[in-house]
Amino acid sequence: MKTVLTDNSLCAYTLFDDAPSEYIYKYIRALAGAGVRYVEIDFRTLMKLRELPKGIGYIFRLVDPMFLRLAELFDFDYILVTFADVRRKIKTDIPIMLELPVIDGYSRRVLQYAEHSMDGRVTAVRIRGSHPLMTQEEARKYVLGLKNEFPVPLDFCPMNDNKTALDSAMKFTAAGADSVTLTMGLTERYCSLEEYFFTLMSVYESLPPELRLNPLCSATVYHRYLFRNRNGDGIMHYMDILDHDIHFLQNADTGERVRIKMGLKDTEYLHRTFVSAMERMARGEDIPDDIFEDISDAIRHYDTDFYNSELLNRKRKGLLN
């Protein structure tokens, strides 16, 4: 997958005052293991960590120029500066990511103005805000148009209350965006990192090899112990959605419910298959005729209720019901 992922949950949520630094450390490691390329953090996280885990990139959100001194203590890939702050006295040798709001169009003069106003070099641009619902072709033209104006990597952080954030993130990914910023957990403002993963799996029927679900599940566990405004288990939420969708599948042509449980004919067919397979096995063995007859009789009268009740008709819970 060409587009890399950035998680900004450590900026979007409020940490518990007593959130253990070791859990923050493991949370970041889990995000890295899941395939997240960059983690966005602010001074609140830095105040709890003596060092940053290796193996992942970091974007430091500069809430105030006074926190530039913290940047000297850590190895950041970018310092994120909003357009409202470009005229403040910002001087740094660390590459700058310039965050811009969503508007109808941008000119590369915006980048020139920002670099002229700051003592630093802008090496990436983030477009953050609510995007209108686009077609795939409109999203492609939108991304391409911005790339023509900004000769630096582009990150998109969709924020939509009307649930188009996920749609925007998926279409920007398909359009070749350099990066998309998502948020771990269930949120009404950002595109959920878990929802992004599950959409790739369930709708597009593929999860790129660089993205892994097991570490994402681990991150969910640490997420519940770190943030004040947590609102449920994201992984289980989307598993429930998939389970519901599977239960209510409909034939697109007829509108009828899709039958996914085993019926009587299915169990009878399996029973006959089982019996015939056992008979063929018995014939393949060197068994005296009288014993062979006893075995054949036992096979014909074998109680298959175990298979019917335990494997076929039992109330089962889980993704595949």
Give the structure's gist in a few sentences.
The chain is 43% helix and 13% strand. With 321 residues, it is of the alpha/beta class.
Show the helix and strand layout.
Layout: E1 4-7, H1 9-12, H2 21-34, E2 38-41, H3 43-46, E3 57-61, H4 68-71, E4 78-82, E5 96-101, H5 109-117, E6 122-129, H6 136-149, E7 154-158, H7 165-174, E8 179-182, H8 193-202, H9 213-226, H10 234-247, H11 264-283, H12 289-300, H13 305-312
Parallel strand pairs: 1-2, 1-8, 2-3, 3-4, 4-5, 5-6, 6-7, 7-8
Helix pairs in contact: 2-9, 6-7, 8-10, 11-12
Could you please describe the fold and organization of this structure?
The protein is an alpha/beta fold. Helix content is 43%, strand content 13%. The protein has 13 helices and 8 strands. The protein has helices at 9-12, 21-34, 43-46, 68-71, 109-117, 136-149, 165-174, 193-202, 213-226, 234-247, 264-283, 289-300, 305-312, and strands at 4-7, 38-41, 57-61, 78-82, 96-101, 122-129, 154-158, 179-182. Strand 3, helix 4 (68-71) and strand 4 form a beta-alpha-beta unit. The two termini are 31 Å apart.
Strand order of the largest sheet: 1-2-3-4-5-6-7-8
Q: Runs with pLDDT <50, length 5+?
A: 310-321
Count all strands and give the number.
8
Distance between termini?
31 Å
Q: What's the number of helices?
A: 13
Characterize the quaternary organization of these chains. Answer: single chain
Mean pLDDT: 81
Question: Which key features would you list for this structure?
Answer:
single chain; about 325 residues; alpha/beta; 8-stranded parallel barrel; disordered C terminus
